[in-house]
Every structure is written in structure tokens, then in C-alpha cells.
Write a structure and sequence with these properties.
The structure is a single chain. The chain is an alpha/beta fold. The chain contains 13 helices and 15 strands. Helices cover 37% and strands 16% of the residues. It has a 7-stranded mixed β-sheet with strand order 4-10-9-8-7-5-6, with helices on both faces.
Amino acid sequence: MSDLYARHRSVLPDWLALYYEDPIEITHGEGRHVWDADGNKYLDFFGGILTTMTAHALPEVTKAVSEQAGRILHSSTLYLNRQMVELAERIAQLSGIPDARVFFTTSGTEANDTALLLATTHRRSNTILAMRNSYHGRSFSAVGITGNRGWSPTSLSPLQTLYVHGGVRTRGPYASLSDADFIAACVDDLKDLLGHTRPPAALIAEPIQGVGGFTSGPDGLYAAFREVLAERGILWIADEVQTGWGRTGDHFWGWQAHGQNGPPDILTFAKGIGNGSSIGGVVARAEIMNCLDANSISTFGGTQITMAAGLANLNYLLEHDLQGNARRVGGLLAERLRAVAAQVPHVREVRGRGLMLGVELVRPGTDQADPDAAAAVLEATRAGGLLIGKGGGHNTSALRIAPPLSLTVAEAEEGAAILGSALRSLT
């Protein structure tokens, strides 16, 4: 055991998860690569949990942060902040939400917590609809609505949560149906559920479930839900913490795969926009954002240095069409992984879109999750010079692949080869 690992275990919580039997300390990165304290170089296909969105040590972001640090780091929301206004203007315009207002937080957890506050206050209801297999953060209220037992340590909650079918296409009672019939069955289930409860405040849903293993329902599912919800005044919160900013390739926001009945009422974001800086936030129609009747501020949300990072990062993303790159290179990577999967009995499914891909592992010949296989692949890919993630509501048996959106074709091929070798080594 390394000295740093021993110190970590002696002073930090037991429930603070670490990857690998022999955890690594990442000391620096560049582009799509990182190095550990022993000098080992890795191709990074997880980006600090989908947070390093453009690239490690991106010069444009580094320069913006350095210049801002030389002026002022922070002043709080009690003072006008040019960088915060400029980034809010950009995000409001990109969100697709009419008459949008933006509130910045420091994390996706806090963003979702704020969205729940807004929805329940606006609707005067503490009932929330959430998806099975979902994850929305670590705060008390966010844990309370999480539909994934592995990430929900308590059933206590300030909210009443009701769980809806549809977040996982290939498991559950509707898995055998066609996409159209799957959506119809989920809508019927939602209508039935609404007939047995007080009017909920909102449905919160990830367009692609992140911690759940990059699962999703068919395109159009949430559009069909929205039709039912809108008739009853129930709000739709799109949790875009992992799916936002073009990561899915096909769309800038995940909700756009379900946009036939308009944008969500509330959108939450975080992770990638800061490229490692602590930025989260909420976008909502003005009538919803302004419904609070008490004072509020954010000490660190929207602080100057993180806003400078966010502006530089967003500019780079848009100017270099990283959404298009995610679509093109992600499509190639998915093809390579599906070719490997056809040869490996442990692989149940390769799923996702863009540079947000999941590989679900099971015991060969069964539908049973195989978390040991997932752990073994993580170790094997690390040994081969590749970092990936894992997750999944079915016993953490899904590999999560989410490189920076500037990933090159050559790097995609290299990563696919390392992962393919690790998968083929399973016995």
C-alpha cells in the first residue's frame, strides 16, 4: 500500500470510492492523456467522470484562468460579474428554453437540488417523478430521488418520489417490445401512476442515465411523457449534467432527442462546461426561476475564475465543432467496440451515442450482471494504458467510456484496441 493511499484511508470516509486494487494518483495531463505519480502515461477515456470535456491542459482555458487569477478570483453574487453575465447569456441562448434565466452553482448535485427547489415551490407540491436506475447527485434531496440503490444510502427524504418506467431500454417488463410499443407502454404506466397520487411537481430525468451505465429509453420517450405532463401542469426537468454540450454527437443537449413537444421547463448542467472547474447551473423559464419569495445568493456559484474557464471552454467547443467530432469519432469507436463484443460472450450490449458509450457485462449464457468481470476489465485496461469508468444499476457491471470530445481517430483506434484486448482476456 502506498503512503498516500494509507493516509487517504486514515483521514477520508470509508465510502469514498477509489478505482483499482492499487489506486493511482494522477499528477498531470495533456490533450487526451494523463500521467500518474510513477510516470505511467494513460489514454483517458473517462475524463474525471465526464468532466474534462475538451482536453487536459487546454491552452485556451489555461490562459483564461491564469489571466483571471491575476485580476480577481471571486466576489460572490452580491456584486455585478461580467463573466457570469456573459456565460449566462450564451447558455440561455443555447438552452432552447424561451425567456430563460440562468443560475450558477458549483456542481451538478447543487444544480439538481436547486431545480427541485424551484419545481416544488412553483408547483406547491413535494412529489417528484423520477426514473428507475437514475442518479442525480449526492445531496440529501438528490439522493432521495435517485433510482439506483447502489448510490442511495438512505430512504429518508424531504420529497415523495415515485419512479417511472423507461430509463432502461433492454431490461424490465417492456424490453421485448418495439420502440413505439415501449414508449406507449411507458406512457400508459405514467398515466396510471398519476391516477393514484397527488399532483407531482415535476419529472426529473437524464436523457442518457450516467451512473446507471449509459442506458436510455428510445428517442421520443420524454416527448411522449411531456405531452402527458403538460396537460397536468407538471414540469419536466432535464438533467443534462452528463449529456450536455454535444457529448452525444447527434445533439447539443440530450433532451433534443425528445424535443418533439418542445424543450424542458428546467435544464440542469455541470461537469463538462468547466473542463475541470467547478461549474454547475440551472436554466429555467423566468416565471419558474423567479418563483422564490425569499432572498438567496451563491457564494461560489458563478465566481469569476470559473466563469472565465467556462467561457473559454465553451468558445473552444463551438469554434472547433467538438459536437461533430463526438458524432464522427464516437461512431467509429462504437463500431470497433461492437465488433469486439460479437466475439466476447461476456458482453451483453454496447450502447450509447457520440462519446458516451457503455459496455454491459454479464455472465456468459445468462442475463446476470458480472461486476467481477467489469472490475477485471478496469484493471486490464489500466495495465494497457487506458483509463475507463464503470457503473450500472445492475450491480456495477457496465463499462463507461467518455473521452474528451477532441478525441482523434488514432486515439479512438488505440483505445478500442486496448479495451478489446481486455475484454477478450475474460474467461
